[in-house]
Structure formats: C-alpha cells, structure tokens
Amino acid sequence: MAYAVIVTLLFPDNSRISYLLEAVVRPPSVVVPMDDELFIKPITNYYVHNINKFETTIGAENDSKTLTLTGSFFSQQNRRTSVCAHAALRMAINSSPIINVPKVTNKYINDVLKIDYEQIGEKLGEKSGWGLNSEQIETVIAELGYDVHSINFLENTGVEYDHFLYPALESCCPTILGIQGLDTNTSKMTSHVVAVLGHTINSDRWSPEAHSGYGNYPIQPYISSARWCDHYIISDDNYGMYSTLPSDLLRNFVVPTKNPYLHAAMAITIIPKGVTIHGYFAEQSATKVAKVLINGGNQVCDNPWLKRMQGNDLVCRTLLQTKEQYLNFIKKQEIMLSENQQNCFDELPDYLWVSEISLPNVYTGNKHKLGDVVICANATAEEHVDGKSLALAWFPGFIQLGNKPFLEHWGIDTHIPLIRNAEDTPFLEW
Question: Which region holds residue 291: left if phi is over 0, alpha if psi is between -120 and 50, else beta?
C-alpha cells in the first residue's frame, strides 16, 4: 500500500509546476500466506532499515478512514521553496524508526534556516541551481535534537564511502550522501544529495575474498561486511524511491578534485545524542583488538576456531546497539556470567558499537560470527585513540573485560548468529 500527495503551483504568469510533496510506499516485498494469515516480507536480499509508520486519511471529511502504513517517506523538490537537500533531509529523518520527531516539512527547514524564499526572487527559478550546504543540513538536524557524523570524501581520500555508510545503515541511522560529477553541457561540476535507507547483500559476490586471494593491492587488514553489499538502497527526489545504487559506482579511483566521473563527495549520518564515535572508526579499532586477542587467546583455551582465525582474513560487521539490546542478545545465548563479567555488562554505557568478527565462509554461509569487540560509543576522541574506549571483547572460550590485562573463561566456544533485526529479515535469503 502507499499514498501520495501531489501539488500543482500556479504562478502569476500562468506557469505551473507539479511535484510530489510527500509519499509513503511499502518497501519492495512479497505477501506470504501462513496459517490463514498474510504476512508482508521484504524481498530476497533487500534490507531497507529506515522504515517507519505513517498515518493517512482517505475519504471525505464526514466519511473518512484513517490508515496506518509502514514504509519509507519520499519527497521531491519544487525548485521554488525547496531543493534536493530539503527532500533528502525529509526522506532521511521521516523514514528513520529511531528518530522521534514530528514529521519534518519544507517550511520547518526554511524556518530553522531563516530562508525567506520570497526575498530570493529569481534565484529560486527552475534553472537557478540554488541549494543548501552541509552546515545548513547539520543545523536542521541539530535543531531536532540529534547529532551528526559527517565526512568529506574529497579530503579524506583513505575512507571508502561505502565502508563509512554501512555501520550507520545497519543501525537504522539514515545518511545523506552527497555526489558530484562533471556536467558536460556546462563543463562544470554538478552536486546532488540523496537519502540512503538500506542496502542489498549478495553473499555469492566474488570480489571480497578474491581481492585478497588473487591480488592484495591495496592492502586491507580485514574484510568489511560492506564488501558483500552490491547495492545501496537510496531515495533520489529526481529518480524515485528504493533505487539501487551500485556500491562500486561512486568510488574515487583518481584524485577527487580531478575526478570527472560521478563520485561520492560527502556523507552526513544522523545519530542519537551522546554517540561521539562513528561506527567506521570504531570498526578500525575493533579489528586491531580482535587480531591481538585471537593470536593471544591460546594462553587461556585450546579452541579450534581460534586456530582457524589466526592468519586468515577476518570479516567485520559493525552496528550500533543500545545497552538493553546488547544485554538481551547476550541473555539469549544462555551464558553463565562470572561476577566480574556481570559487573562489566551492568556498567556498559547507553550506546555501544558492536563489531562482530567472523570468517568469510561462516559469515556468508551461516550468517554467524565468532566474536564481538564492543566499543563505548560515548568515548572521547582521546580515549578512543588511547584504546580506552574498549568496553569488552570475546571470542570462543575467553573474554576480555575493558582494558584489564587478563582474560577470563567465556561460555561460548563456537560460532553464534549475527545480531539481526527480525522485522527486516527477508522471507528468503542467499
């Protein structure tokens, strides 16, 4: 099901423009009959994490019905009172299940930024190309009471754009992605922003393991789970919702400032207050911790899985968890915790970056993992650099609590399921 609101503007010169003010559409899905009931399930390998519930009314005023629809929000710019950044902000914020604010409108954005479009005049014409900059986008998000983690890929050339996107998307944190490309008609660079709402996964994708198996340049210390994402699910106010952006399409293969090809320019992730570290940087630290512990774990246990992980390519999947979510996950594993371990879990901060460590075959074949490295999401930059942001880390047979220099026995000695959101799990998966 879906709804759409289309607006037509009539101007004094009798010109008109029509645009989609707002719409909500159910994600790509199938209807599955089970026990005389119908269930809506995402289609194979589509993971749209930013889905919300919306109310709409149909019928006449005196004979109407209110419906609740589950889907993602979509909006178009009208180039008079809104531009692509308005649309991307509204699509990202209104679609997110973790951002609890009233529905964001174009008027709200303009009021926050004190934009008087009546005074801008011809600059708002259809071919004017006016827009909002990154600072203005971040100002709107801050006004709503949320933080942002932003990055400029033109300056931070060592960061792969999709590796930056993935932890936020797995955490239901929407991201606004800025892209650039050369307009050959004007010989100028053109810029645009889209809302990134999810991703697809292809566990048969050849490149993640083959990259290190047949050639290892550039050298990668681990395999990010983002490597198995062959598309990112975006909403683009020019070309529609639930579009699939090939993950390799926007890479900066040459110096970004000299790159005429379409490429990623910047990203702004909307994040809960108090989360000071981005998942990308938590993941970099987590993999270093994992390698040290895996190679040293033999001192406390003789586990065959540890031996398999030593010297092999590790897979890392990172996502944001609340303390309650992670504790519930641990409880489901039915582990007998020592007093020290229980105290450590009780003292965890409200938000955690959990980096799940696995091996390629275990990750793709079983959707399982062999350990977690848990980073305090509220740590300062200095604490993170000094290694003091580590909350705990466990692998088959042992656990390290914080920065304590000793390892304790741990009740998990094999692989266990990844942390999954049951609501967005497709009916069929590869």
Answer: alpha
pLDDT tens track for 109-145 = 999 999 876 655 444 444 445 688 999 999 999 999 9
Closest CA to 17 of 108, 105, 80: 80
pLDDT mean for each 10 residues of the chain (430 residues)? 89 88 91 83 87 89 89 92 94 94 94 78 49 92 95 90 93 94 82 94 87 72 92 95 92 71 92 93 94 82 89 92 96 93 96 97 94 96 90 95 89 94 68
The architecture of the domain spanning 2-271 is Alpha-Beta Complex (3.90)
Going from the C-alpha of 59 to that of each of 56, 66, 68, 336, the distances in angstroms are: 10, 9, 15, 57
Q: Within 13 Å of residue 33, how many CA atoms lie on the same side as its CB?
A: 1
- Please give the pLDDT value at position 255: 66
| Environment class of 95 (CB within 10 Å of its CB; exposed 0-12, middle 13-18, buried 19+) | buried
Q: How far is it, in rounded angstroms, from Cα 45 to Cα 201?
A: 5
Q: Which sequence spans correspond to the domains of the chain?
A: 2-271, 279-424
